[in-house]
Design a protein that fits this description.
Largest sheet: 7 strands, mixed
Shape: globular
Number of strands: 14
Distance between the termini: 5 Å
Low-confidence stretches: none
Strand content: 15-25%
Strand order of the largest sheet: 6-5-4-3-2-1-14
Radius of gyration: 17 Å
Number of helices: 6
């Protein structure tokens, strides 16, 4: 597999001979307002431009959208992506929304416990199975306000099992997914993004450490970092923490545009 960190939670993944665009935020630097009641109100989102032309990203085999927050699916993505691209999305409500509001025609809601299957590409045999994994976008009242989100596990003969956590804190269903699927590669959204007065929206360094402990043989890739005004955990701080706690040899913190082959 090849995992290319694009920006924020946007990934371009080559897996089982197929190409997947995950959580496309394709607008230019500063094209969105800052998230309110949070750090760096003087900065507009995203904080950096795409590392490549958007045209390089808009012809995957499949698109996966873990939830419809504007930093995971923005207006530019809605305009640039072909309306007949196969899209997997987290539930039937968001399936209906992306059909009716944005005009996409080939949309499938992922179901808990029932993987979607797509045929492998050249060099692989069988099917790629995509499992929906529950995600909890913060805790308490903020989790209610944020609404549902999801992650995804990819299984394919001849590939390592991949788990992309999506926007979540460390909580029992994430631990259960690691135990059940035993992923060898885990992409963790790890910026510890914050709205003042509430718990973080996604994992920070302790959550990444919990993943490392639960999956002692897995490579961990930290994503969703330093891209939005309300991030709290920097790449440098996460790297130093991993060194201190003894899992830096398994941690990758890619720069925008970087490809990781596994």
């Amino acid at each position: 597999m090849i995992i290319r960190q694009i920006r924020n939670a946007t990934l371009y993944i080559t897996y089982g001979g197929k190409e997947f665009l995950l959580d496309p935020m394709l607008g230019g630097k500063g094209s969105q307002k800052p998230f309110p009641n949070s750090p760096r109100q003087e900065l507009r989102n995203p904080l950096a431009d795409l590392p490549c032309a958007a045209s390089e990203l808009i012809h995957p085999d499949y698109v996966i959208i873990t939830h419809l927050h504007r930093d995971h699916f923005d207006r530019a993505a809605a305009e640039l992506l072909d309306k007949d691209l196969p899209i997997f999305i987290q539930n039937e409500d968001e399936e209906e929304k992306i059909r009716s509001k944005y005009g996409f025609t080939c949309v499938t809601a992922l179901e808990d416990g029932c993987p979607a299957e797509v045929p492998c590409g050249e060099g692989f045999e069988g099917n790629i199975r995509i499992y929906r994994i529950p995600a909890q976008h913060s805790e308490g009242k903020m989790a209610e306000m944020s609404g549902p989100a999801c992650g995804a596990v990819f299984h394919c003969p001849g590939e390592k099992t991949l788990y992309v956590t999506g926007d979540t804190v460390w909580y029992p269903p994430v631990e259960e997914a690691v135990r059940t699927h035993q992923p060898e590669v885990i992409v963790a959204n790890a910026g510890e993004n914050l709205v003042y007065g509430y718990p973080p929206l996604i994992m920070g360094k302790e959550g990444v450490r919990n993943i490392a402990a639960a999956a002692p043989g897995a490579v961990i890739i930290a994503s969703h970092m330093e891209s939005l005004n309300h991030y709290m955990l920097s790449k440098a701080d996460l790297r130093a923490y991993a060194e201190e706690k003894g899992f830096s040899d398994r941690l990758r913190i890619p720069e925008d545009g970087e490809r990781i082959s596994l």
